Amino acid sequence: MADHDPTAAVKESHSRSPAEGSDHSSPNDPSNAAMAEFHLNIEVGSDQDSTFGGSDEGGSTTTTSLASSVFDYVYENGRRYHKYREGSYALPNDDQEQERLDMLHHIFGLVIGGALHKSPISSPHNVLDIGTGTGIWALDFADEYPEAQVLGNDLSPIQPSWTAPNCRFVVDDVESPWAYPASKRFDLIHQRNMVGSIANWPRLFQQAFDHLAPGGWYEAQEFDVWFHAQAEPLSEESHIMKWQTLLDQASSQFGKRLNCFDEVLTAFGGVSFENVTHEIFKVPIGRWPKDRKLRETGMYLQAQMLDSVEPVSMAYFTRVLGWTREETLVFIAKVRKEFQNDRSCLYVYCHFLRGQKPAAE
Q1: CDD domains annotated for this entry (predicted)?
Q2: Threshold 0.90, pTM exceeds
Q3: Is residue 267 part of a domain?
Q4: Within 13 Å and on the Cβ side, how many CA atoms surround 140?
Q5: Tell me, what DSSP letter sits at residue 28?
Q6: What is the distance between the alpha carbons of residues 161 and 7, in angstroms, rounded to a whole number?
Q7: Burial class of 11 by CB neighbour count within 10 A (0 to 12, 13 to 18, 19+)
Q8: What are phi and psi of 8, to 5 degrees?
Q9: Any long-range contacts for 319-325 (C-beta under 8 Å, 24+ apart)?
């Protein structure tokens, strides 16, 4: 096993990592009182949100009240999926998935020493967390910056009903036209774990750029969905190699590719961001590193991968590739076993990409 720092960061501007993609809180019960309040306060696809105090001056109000159907879910292959914009996202949103997402939040913190972001912000006023998931990043950011108003959006209403006074959540599709008021531009827009969720990256980044305040930052935090072995390259017979190849095929057919960071970089470079920085961290999977902190990160990421294989795979394999649930479960059991093998010295790349809107428009 090579003894070097697997989290060495490489800083670039609009460039690819050394690993080229080609190498291949529980949901609330709507019947309880807390959810009733959440139901009344949250909005869908609104141009007027409670965080920022109303629509833009002189603009018409097109707020759509949250319909009860938004709290409906789709059940498939033993997992629960979102109902709003059904089928546009391939991963579940049930309790098990929420626990996985919260663990991933912890892993991102381990990768960058407990920080929530890499962008050099000081006193943000308005902050947007797109695809907020359980809302854990938005809630932690609201605690760390009590003067900021933090808004998180997602297709699933799985965020807590009781939040910090400066944090709100809305059910919305980030790929739809953004209708946030022009008078309330964002000082930071944060993206995490959005690979596999976006069909049109150039449109997303352009909309984000348009809704940033002058001098505001956009930051993307993403793991590759492509895995490597340090001891020796993964062979074509490796179950992990077969799995990630099938995932790449299925997610591409789905129209929202998972292994897409090359596309993300290209799209980001097509928008007029300044001070663009791309940091890449090589993160171990398993207990194989000698360094104590790296071994801790690897331990958590290995547990994360064992929890991830099934929810990441199931919809792609059954909906797109036409596998049965039983065939999928048999195959992913072999993948999970391979992720448990520390002798392979598995690792993955994690990307932190950020750019600033010019201070003078």
Answers
A1: AdoMet_MTases (cd02440)
A2: no
A3: yes
A4: 15
A5: P
A6: 37
A7: exposed
A8: -60, 130
A9: 319/90, 319/254, 320/250, 320/251, 320/253, 320/254, 321/246, 321/249, 321/250, 325/77, 325/78
Write the pLDDT tens digit of every residue in 161-215.
Answer: 888 999 999 999 999 999 998 888 999 999 999 999 999 999 999 999 999 999 9
Tens digit of pLDDT for each residue in 20-40?
Answer: 333 333 333 332 222 222 222
Q: How many domains does the chain have?
A: 1
Tokens standing for residue 149: 């108003």
Which amino acid belongs to residue 214? P
- CA–CA separation, 81 and 275 (whole Å): 38
Q: Is residue 36 a part of any domain in this protein?
A: no
Domain that holds residue 296: 70-357
Residue-wise pLDDT tens digits, 86-136: 877 888 888 999 999 999 999 999 999 999 999 999 899 999 999 999 999
Q: Are strands 79-82 and 126-130 parallel, antiparallel or unpaired?
A: unpaired
Q: Which two tokens stand for residue 275?
A: 């001070």
